């Protein structure tokens, strides 16, 4: 993102209010700051206060935008982790109301680029009006985007019901068996805003941005990345899988422990053969019952393989511990 004069840029980051989105955006922010760019990381106060920010680059500034209160959204709620799935549409409505304060910030700053999520479908057009370049950062796999299809399909294609998403779409031009289970799509229907569907949000974010980036690599998803470039008719840039950064930093920060764990894991992985380790992670907001935890453990044990099992920490001092704070179990065997 260097400009023609090789000058440093001011880049705004605006993720969706879920830790599985916020933390990848933070990793990209750290990378950009390492390159000397100024970053304005924009979110709500509660989400920013939970981030491990004490030892981050001084080039990263955190901008707090209070989340508007709306009927149906529990008081002081600012992330999906605090809500049952059927309440998430209210969070999306409140998030859309951040358009005005965010626009005001962009108007009165020297931001050159804005990197945004798919939920804020209005932001690319706002950025264009202000002469700011916009980048849609997809935190999902490139294969997920390829399955969803081009903006025209997302807006009004043939798939109108949950069951329509249980088969591989016709535009996927390589061998694939990737499709949703019916219960997955039924559940997702419950978390969509009835005024602006997630498909509409994806379509606008993709169509009106300058370029698309995705949390993937060509080595992992070359067919999907190539297909996306055909479907979108614009640049699609894979950013990698964004593991925690290992850049040397001053000690004493709140996230030092997390990075130390990653260094141990990386050294352990480097000593394993290719394709020999099982990785189990169910996301930042999935809580299994004790019965399901035991079933999963039995399955891992039966494999007899070394594994990494990511388990969310318990809440501390009454606060939810979000993505990035993990208890990670490493074993050389299934036992």
Automatic annotation (TrEMBL):
Record flagged with keyword Transferase: yes
Assigned keywords, A-Z: Glycosyltransferase, Transferase
GO MF term (any one): UDP-glucosyltransferase activity
The keyword Thylakoid is annotated on this UniProt entry: no
Coiled coil: none
Gene3D superfamilies membership: Glycogen Phosphorylase B
Name assigned to this protein: UDP-glycosyltransferase
């Amino acid at each position: 993102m260097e400009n023609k004069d090789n000058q440093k840029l001011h880049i705004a980051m605006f993720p969706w209010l879920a830790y599985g989105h916020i933390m990848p955006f933070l990793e990209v922010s750290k990378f950009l700051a390492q390159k000397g760019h100024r970053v304005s990381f924009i979110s709500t106060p509660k989400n920013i206060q939970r981030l491990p920010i004490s030892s981050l680059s001084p080039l990263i500034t955190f901008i707090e935008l209070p989340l508007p209160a709306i009927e149906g959204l529990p008081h002081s709620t600012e992330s999906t982790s605090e809500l049952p799935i059927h309440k998430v549409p209210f969070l999306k409505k409140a998030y859309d109301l951040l358009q005005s304060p965010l626009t005001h910030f962009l108007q009165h700053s020297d931001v050159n680029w804005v990197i945004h999520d798919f939920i804020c479908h209005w932001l690319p057009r706002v950025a264009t009006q202000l002469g700011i370049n916009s980048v849609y950062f997809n935190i999902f796999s490139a294969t997920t985007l390829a399955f969803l299809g081009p903006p025209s399909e997302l807006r009004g294609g043939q798939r109108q019901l949950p069951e329509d998403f249980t088969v591989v779409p016709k535009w996927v031009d390589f061998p694939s068996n990737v499709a949703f289970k019916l219960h997955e799509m039924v559940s997702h229907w419950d978390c969509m805003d009835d005024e602006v569907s997630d498909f509409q949000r994806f379509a606008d974010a993709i169509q009106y941005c300058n370029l698309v980036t995705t949390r993937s690599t060509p080595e992992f998803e070359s067919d999907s990345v190539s297909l996306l470039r055909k479907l979108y008719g614009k640049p699609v840039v894979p950013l990698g899988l964004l593991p925690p950064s290992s850049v040397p930093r001053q000690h004493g920060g709140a996230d030092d422990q997390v990075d130390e764990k990653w260094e141990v894991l990386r050294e352990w992985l480097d000593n394993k053969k290719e394709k020999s380790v099982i990785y189990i992670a169910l996301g930042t907001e999935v809580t299994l019952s004790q019965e399901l935890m035991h079933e999963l453990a039995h399955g891992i044990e039966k494999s007899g393989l070394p594994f990494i099992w990511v388990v969310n920490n318990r809440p501390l001092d009454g606060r939810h511990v979000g993505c990035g704070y993990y208890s990670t179990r490493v074993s050389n065997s299934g036992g």
